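ARCHIVE CARD
CATEGORY: sequence design from structure
SOURCE FIELD: tokenized fold
FIELD CONTENT:
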């Protein structure tokens, strides 16, 4: 598959549902932090979505009487959204590659995310080198930024 073909196929893809995400990423419940990805523009940008449910195991201890989604899981959802479009852009569609976090920079948390919220991970590529990518991410709930960070990852073939 040529670079131009991969880019055109990825750009024409309007969204990725949970079944495609499971085919792209090695993550599984309870650590899969993205349910759907839309507005995909190659490996340049995307918007990932996470439906936050009270049934998720981290709410049993964080915090039982005042459930708040852990910030590190929000950052993980950002990285998974970006990682999925990187794998997709590389033309991988069947077997999960291993995606390793390299960096998390400038992480800021603006307000708590609670059960019932729909998280949006707005990811924009800021750099790419061989099998490494860096993204700026903003997590939003109802249009309001709840967290932001710059994340870097590397894709390793299995």
């Amino acid at each position: 598959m040529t670079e131009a073909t991969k880019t055109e196929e990825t750009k024409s893809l309007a969204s990725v549902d949970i079944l495609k995400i499971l085919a792209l990423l090695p993550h599984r419940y309870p650590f899969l932090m993205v349910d759907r990805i839309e507005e995909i523009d190659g490996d340049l940008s995307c918007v990932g979505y996470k439906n936050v449910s009270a049934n998720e195991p981290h709410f049993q201890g964080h915090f039982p009487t005042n459930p708040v989604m852990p910030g590190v899981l929000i950052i993980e959802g950002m990285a998974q959204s970006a990682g999925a479009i990187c794998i997709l852009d590389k033309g991988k569609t069947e077997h999960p590659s291993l995606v390793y976090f390299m960096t998390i920079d400038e992480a800021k948390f603006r307000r708590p995310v609670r059960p019932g919220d729909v998280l949006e991970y707005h990811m924009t590529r800021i750099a790419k080198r061989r099998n490494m990518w860096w993204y700026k991410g903003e997590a939003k709930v109802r249009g309001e930024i709840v967290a932001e960070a710059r994340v870097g990852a590397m894709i390793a073939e299995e």
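CARD ANNOTATION: The mean pLDDT is 90. Residues 2 and 107 are 36 Å apart (CA to CA).
SHELF: design records, drawer C
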